[in-house]
Amino acid sequence: MRTEVETSQIDRRYESYRMRSEGREKLLLSSILAKGIEEPLCGVQTSSAAPVLLLDGFKRLRCVVKLKINHVPFFSLGEDEATAISSLLR
Length: 90
Hints:
By secondary structure, the protein is of the alpha/beta class. The chain has a 5-stranded mixed beta sheet. It has 3 helices and 5 strands; from the N terminus they run E-E-H-E-E-H-E-H. It is globular. Helices cover 36% and strands 24% of the residues. Helix 1 (22-35) crosses helix 2 (58-66). The two termini are 18 Å apart.
């Protein structure tokens, strides 16, 4: 399910497990500034009131936070964390 979420409602608990690349992040920042977010962030959204758990899109999220963008496109990969992670790995 594709929706839009507020950046403050995103749970980043897996961010430390992902690799950072300052160079790629700078390129992404300029791309988002010019074209907006072309690919939605992915993760788990269990209900509309709960925070969403981010699994893919940590660089995009850091860039939109720097650009002070408050809402981002989000695609839910499943209804629970295990299903979403296995879906992402496929």
